[in-house]
Structure prediction request, 232 residues.
Amino acid sequence: MAITKISKHISYKEATHSNTATRRGIKNLPSDKHIVAMKSLAKNVFEPVRVHFDKPIRVNSFFRSVALNKAIGGSSTSQHCKGEAIDLDATKGFTNKQIYNYIKDNLEFDQLIWEFGTDKEPDWVHVSYRADGKNRKQQLRASRKGGKSVYTVIATTKPQEEKPKKTTKLKTKGVVKVATNLNVRAKGNKTAKIVGSLPNKTKVTITKTKNDWHKIKAGKIVGWVFAKYVKI
Ligand SMILES: [Zn+2]
Prediction:
């Protein structure tokens, strides 16, 4: 791998380093796709945090190969294996809580985890970021119960994306674009009764859109037309 840096403040070596990997001879080599994800996370989360506190931040763990992740007992769905997660630890002059809060209040993220510690200070901060933009802004708290790590969702800032509504109310101008005439129908389907006919270049006002149909008004004619024949 020819690259030496993931971002201004994270070296390739730092991003792939693991004592466990070194000790056990486990390879920890990110693919090109992983590198893209890592750079995106570094640019959108790590660097803004680094710039804000203007102090070194320890990167405890960034990329983990599946073998390494298994060796350290990481979750099988860990975003570290995709290059989408990083573990941060504050150095002198600021705290992990401050890192956590800064990310929570200012940045886009997928999952932000208060890792163990106490109510006042986590042991470290895990944060993940998805380059595809599907970031859930989910906050979790990790704690240990009976020797197991338990993750509790504290908050999800961003609501799940709503499905686009099938019917949208709008008022848009359009122009009929057909070879001959465009049929206007009583309802938005091909077999509905024809209530009018509009020649090419007729100006219409679209008042509603449903599936492939527009409800239009043109002079005294009101009805539904096939949307692809109206240029907006
Ligand atoms: Zn982590």
